[in-house]
Specification:
Layout: H1 5-13, E1 14-16, E2 24-27, E3 31-34, H2 36-49, E4 58-62, H3 72-88, E5 91-93, H4 100-107, E6 114-117, E7 131-134, H5 137-144, E8 149-152, E9 155-162, H6 171-182, E10 190-195, H7 204-212, E11 221-223, H8 228-236, E12 256-261, E13 268-270, E14 278-280, H9 281-284, E15 291-294, H10 302-312, E16 322-325, H11 330-338, H12 341-348, E17 351-352, E18 372-375, E19 391-394, H13 397-406, E20 434-435, E21 464-472, H14 479-482, H15 486-489, H16 496-499, H17 511-517, E22 521-525, H18 537-544, E23 547-552, H19 557-565, E24 569-573, H20 576-580, E25 587-591, E26 599-603, E27 608-613, H21 618-626, H22 629-633
Helix pairs in contact: 2-3, 2-5, 6-7, 10-12, 10-13
The structure holds alpha-methylisocitric acid and iron/sulfur cluster.
Pfam families: Aconitase, Aconitase_C
Catalytic activity: citrate = D-threo-isocitrate
Cofactor: [4Fe-4S] cluster
Length: about 625
């Protein structure tokens, strides 16, 4: 039996463990990326390791999230990041150069390499044939220090694409279709590998749209083969030398194969408030819309923006609606300008934002009260847009542009002949906003603003964990629920004491105060607890507030690793009955001196005992006992 592409790349990078689904493996990391919202913490952690120069082939620090400089905080963070990059051998992508995933695809991604990024959409790199995985900042810091990245060997699912997309249907519809079928939990513990004849009909940015949103499936990552299409893309980026052909063996085995016939796909849309709440556009066509937003790391490529421009050319956006556009990168913006698309969308009334995450992370452009906003983004969690009662839909650029003209959700097929976007033989390649590390690092002083506070530390785990249930939540709680982002809270990412005042703000704003008063406690969650963003602040800030354990039906991968990294014990509840035997305010006790033994949570308030489980490895148990990964790395 031959090997699939995932197995081939993982095997090449294997440092420890066995490549058997469910077993823990350590893999060598070739490249890392960080963005500013997770990067400040990652670099503070890297600094704490005391390693003078990164040990990866390439590490890039991007600034793309915290771009609204409403106070000194974000600007100070940018300076900190620039100086620390220069000092430790890290390439720095300046603010304005674009969204980390888009720029990394254009300028740095290499087929067959392993990329670890402190952002959950790092799998965008899978569009180039990389194994690109999102992780918490601390894991990325450790990888920069030369340590392997540990993960549970995922199952490999093949998605077999046949046929070709019909007019007005785009790559976004492929991933929306998968979300419809598999849900936001469907990819947990899996790597999704794309195979079949349909693959070659998709360009690299289209593949990247698909692998990007594999994050919404909960997948560890997603990967496309590296073929002639990949080669042409790299050639157009003037880096054909990075190309290697890569594909699965013809007789490769997969855990499961999912068939998608591209010929039969129709324009799709995700309704509020989850990316898997997908239906055909025609089912919601006619819904009044107040905002359309085009951009984000999912759909902000030259192809995406030019498609929108071609649809809007010579027309004007609907008077009741605001259209905002953020190009994915400086390169995209320059190409968009050179090819005339920018002039067309400005003439049509689009409001142009800088190349950054922008409205995707609630940094500006919050929709009006109760509004419907159609976005080409990847997440539509409640409140993430900055307006609690806004209703966010997710679609491809064709649907978004048709909607911008109509003022209501519109099926683009009503527009007649689809526009043809010509592929450029070459992109405008100019790395003038990318700074190389300093030649004389000893001369670099790291610049720290007053908002950058030292990392909080945790003591060793006690023999018995005691505390009250501070909060009980349901299924699919996202890290946006646990540690919200947005223009008010994001600037506090470098200041854990300050940001901790917003933990669970949208769910129960009394949480931080109650946690502080009761000197910490326990959180109870449903299935897929901690899905979404990789932000380790969703573990770090609760840890600062004294949260000692999370009891949940199941956990999302990155958040689970973050909890362990920061010394919070994740315990899994066996069944629904146990879940209902826990209520907010209950006093709990669990003896944890032997984490290999049978674990029982005593609910002292109700006088019941609840069996709990975990899948922790010995490495993780040692980490939890020591008070977290940094304590272990520093040998405390
Ligand atoms: C997101 O899309 O939620 C983010 C902001 O990019 C996060 C990272 C963060 O919270 O800083 C992610 O997806 O990991
Ligand atoms: Fe930025 Fe949005 Fe992509 Fe996250 S999902 S990296 S916030 S554009």
């Amino acid at each position: 039996m031959g090997a699939n592409l995932t197995q081939k790349i993982l095997k090449e990078h294997l440092v420890s463990g066995e490549l058997k689904p469910g077993c823990e493996i350590g893999i060598r990391v070739d490249q890392t990326l960080t963005q500013d919202a997770t990067g400040t913490m990652a670099y503070l952690q890297y600094e704490a390791l005391g390693i003078p120069r990164v040990r990866t082939k390439l590490s890039v620090s991007y600034v793309d999230h915290n771009m609204l400089q409403t106070g000194f905080e974000n600007a100070d963070d940018h300076r900190f990041l620039q100086s620390i990059a220069a000092k430790y051998g890290i390439t720095f992508s300046r603010p304005g150069n674009g969204i980390c995933h888009q720029v990394h695809l254009e300028r740095f991604g290499v087929p067959g390499q392993v990329l670890l990024g402190s952002d959950s959409h790092t799998p965008t790199g899978g569009g180039l044939g990389m194994i690109a995985v999102g992780a918490g900042g601390l894991d990325v810091a450790l990888a920069m220090g030369g340590q392997p990245f540990f993960l549970t060997t995922p199952k490999v699912v093949g998605v077999h694409l046949s046929g070709r997309l019909q007019p007005w249907v785009s790559a976004k519809d492929i991933i929306l279709e998968l979300l419809r079928r598999l849900t936001v939990k469907g990819g947990v513990g899996k790597i999704i590998e794309y195979i079949g004849e349909g693959v070659k009909t998709l360009s690299v940015p289209e593949r990247a749209t698909i692998t990007n949103m594999g994050a919404e499936l909960g997948a560890t990552t997603s990967v496309f083969p590296s073929d002639e299409v990949t080669r042409a893309y790299l050639r157009a980026q003037k880096r054909e030398q990075s190309w290697v052909p890569l594909s699965a063996d013809p007789d490769a085995a997969y855990e499961e194969v999912i068939e998608i016939d591209l010929n039969r796909l129709e324009p799709l849309i995700a309704r509020p408030h989850m990316p898997d709440n997908v239906c055909k556009v025609e089912e919601v066509a006619g819904t009044k819309v107040q905002q359309v937003a085009i951009g984000s790391c999912t759909n902000s490529s030259f192809r995406d923006l030019m498609t929108v421009a071609a649809i809007l050319k010579g027309k004007t956006v609907h008077p009741d609606l605001s259209l905002v556009m953020s190009p994915g990168s400086n390169q995209v913006l320059r190409m968009f300008t050179a090819y005339g698309g920018l002039a067309d969308v400005i003439a049509a009334g689009a409001r142009i934002l800088e190349s950054s995450c922008g409205p995707c992370i609630g940094m500006g452009q919050a929709p009006p009260s109760g509004a419907v906003s159609v976005r080409t983004f990847n997440r539509n969690f409640e409140g993430r847009s900055g307006t609690k009662d806004a209703r966010i839909y997710l679609s491809g650029p064709e649907v978004a542009a048709a909607t911008a003209l109509a003022g209501v959700i519109a099926d683009p097929r009503t527009l007649g002949t689809p526009p043809r976007v010509e592929w450029p033989a070459e992109f405008i390649v100019d790395d003038n906003l990318i700074l190389s590390p300093a030649a004389e690092p000893e001369k670099i002083e790291v610049i720290r603003g007053p908002n950058i506070k030292p990392l909080p530390v945790k003591e060793r785990m006690p023999e018995v964990i005691r505390g009250e249930v501070l909060l009980k939540v349901g299924d699919n709680i996202t890290t946006d629920h646990i540690m919200p982002a947005g223009a008010k809270i994001l600037p506090l990412r470098s200041n854990i004491p300050a940001i901790s005042a917003y933990v669970f703000e949208g769910v129960d704003p009394t949480f931080p105060e109650r946690a502080r008063k009761s000197k910490g406690g326990v959180v109870v969650g449903g299935a897929n607890y901690g899905q979404g963003s990789s932000r380790e602040h969703a573990a770090l800030a609760p840890m600062y507030l004294g949260v000692k354990a999370v009891l949940a039906k199941s956990f999302a991968r990155i958040h689970l690793a973050n909890l362990i990294n920061f010394g919070i014990l994740p315990l899994t509840l066996g069944n629904e009955e146990d879940f209902v035997r826990l209520e907010q305010g209950d006093q709990l006790e669990v003896a944890v001196s032997d984490l290999r033994g049978k674990l029982v949570v005593k609910n002292l308030t109700r006088g019941v005992e609840i069996p709990v489980r975990h899948n922790l490895t010995d490495r993780e148990i040692a980490m939890l006992k020591a008070g977290g990964a940094l304590a272990v790395a520093k040998g405390n």
